[in-house]
Amino acid sequence: MMTPYPIRLRRPKPEDAAVVCDLVIACDVEDFGSPDFDLGELLDMWSGFDLQHNVWVAENAGGQIVGYAFLEEDSEEKLFSYGFVLPSARGTGVGTALLTAIESRAEELAAASGRHKRLQNVVPTLREDAQTLLRTRGFVPVRLFKRMSIRLEAAPAAPDLPAGITLAPFLPGRDEQDLYAAYIEAFADHWDFAVPGFDTWAEQIDRPSFRPEWWLIARGRDGDIAGFALGRMREDTLYLNQIGVRRSFRGQGLGLALLQTAFHKAYAAGQPNISLGVDTSNPSGAFRLYEKAGMRAVYEVTVAEKTVQPGSPA
């Protein structure tokens, strides 16, 4: 069914959250075959977004929300964006309207800072219509990411920890600074990594869904953090946001042990589904590690990018 015109873009309101969540889930089902989102994740994201400047919903003439997009100011140089169009409203200009709003905001930010911005947008790799739209607007594909998952049909084996390594949950009020430093070191060689300020990084601890028991910390003999696996339990899955091992502790199997520990804890808690996202070209070999642990790729997205110069249209 075609979307009635005109399309109106506006800022989201708190009462829109459930409808926007349902829209994203509908897109997931259409594009990937199953949902990969929940209301808690949306509320987490909105708690850190500038809703009045960097987030949009698109309404049709009947007031139905048929599109949603956001932009994140990842660093002084990089902007990250994502847009969603209700499957029944695709091909009617909603995606174009949202992308135009994203580009206009990128122009504003470039002009205000007096420096260029790298504007990134993410689309499902198999969505040719979305890929074509980005190409016509000057975006170039720069990276591929896969979502990987596993469903545990039986209790997993206990993890095999490297000698001298101990595991413990994250302790709020004690571990923030040490974990932040370990995160910076572990992710320093990842593609396009931008070092966040401590306060920005720590915002995730204040989000509604944060539970310290799903943040696993590995320590070496000297007590220093050797690695970590930071997860978020959703209704339908344990999602592992970040898995990292500091350079001096690599090559001992710690990454696999952290992953297996997360599997073990999730299964014991009655959650057999675990998922994560991975850069397919990650230099640490993370993709192969997750395959070794039994995880399989379920879908892929493309990150595309363009440069927005101050004083010039995007």
Structure in words:
Pfam families: Acetyltransf_1, Acetyltransf_7. InterPro entries: Acyl_CoA_acyltransferase, Bact_Acetyltransf, GNAT_dom. This is GNAT family acetyltransferase. One of its GO terms (molecular function) is acyltransferase activity, transferring groups other than amino-acyl groups. With 314 residues, the chain is an alpha+beta fold. It folds into two domains: 143 residues, Gcn5-related N-acetyltransferase (GNAT) (Aminopeptidase, 3-Layer(aba) Sandwich); 118 residues, Aminopeptidase, CATH 3.40.630. The chain has a twelve-stranded mixed sheet, sandwiched between helices. The protein is globular and about 60 Å long.
| Strand content bin | 25-35%
Number of strands: 12
| Helical content (DSSP H or I, runs of 4+) | 25-40%
Shape: globular
Topology:
Blueprint: E1 8-10, H1 17-32, H2 39-48, E2 55-59, E3 65-73, E4 78-85, H3 94-113, E5 117-124, H4 128-136, E6 140-151, E7 166-169, H5 176-187, H6 198-202, E8 215-219, E9 225-233, E10 238-245, H7 254-268, E11 273-279, H8 286-292, E12 296-308
Parallel strand pairs: 4-5, 10-11
Antiparallel strand pairs: 1-2, 2-3, 3-4, 5-12, 6-11, 6-12, 7-8, 8-9, 9-10
Summarize the structure.
Helices cover 30% and strands 29% of the residues.
Q: What are the salient characteristics of this protein?
A:
single chain, 8 helices, 314 residues, twelve-stranded mixed sheet, alpha+beta, Aminopeptidase, 12 strands
